[in-house]
Design brief:
alpha+beta, three-stranded antiparallel beta sheet, two-stranded antiparallel sheet, 4 helices
């Protein structure tokens, strides 16, 4: 393990006047090297064994990169359109008030307001006789 001083000293250069100096980019590189060294040291200190009674060490994380990947926060991408879900929920809840009286009708549309905005919901009857919203639009038809 290198100390802070050893890492920092490895980035020093000698100027034209013979004085040791370090440039700003090299200082940033030294800071990054120290950060990586500290991370590796912390990993080695905290490394857990899967089975401490195994004849050869069987570590939970094989290397530092494996450990870093395990600590990353997984972001679940939600491909659902929340507005469409809300519109479908509202439209389905008021649907019984707009059902056509004629049993031969297979599609219809109705207007409703949600949060002060007017929407039109379009429904068709499926093979089982249930009404399904197929699309919606903002505004009146």
């Amino acid at each position: 393990m290198k100390t802070k001083e050893e890492i920092l000293n490895s980035f020093y250069t000698t100027g034209a006047d013979g004085v040791s100096e370090i440039s700003a980019p090299d200082l940033l590189k030294a800071m990054e090297a120290y950060k990586q060294q500290s991370l590796a040291d912390a990993f080695n200190a905290a490394r857990k064994l899967k089975d401490e009674f195994a004849p050869t060490p069987n570590y939970q994380f094989k290397n530092l990169e494996d450990y870093i990947k395990s600590t990353e926060i997984k972001v679940v991408k939600n491909d659902k359109d929340e507005l469409s879900e809300q519109i479908a929920l509202v439209a389905d809840s008021v649907l019984p008030n707009f059902l056509p009286d004629d049993p031969t009708v297979t599609e219809f549309a109705f207007d409703f307001n949600m949060m002060g905005i007017g929407y039109t919901a379009f429904y068709t009857k499926d093979a089982d006789g249930y009404w399904q919203m197929v699309r919606w639009r903002v505004g009146r038809e």
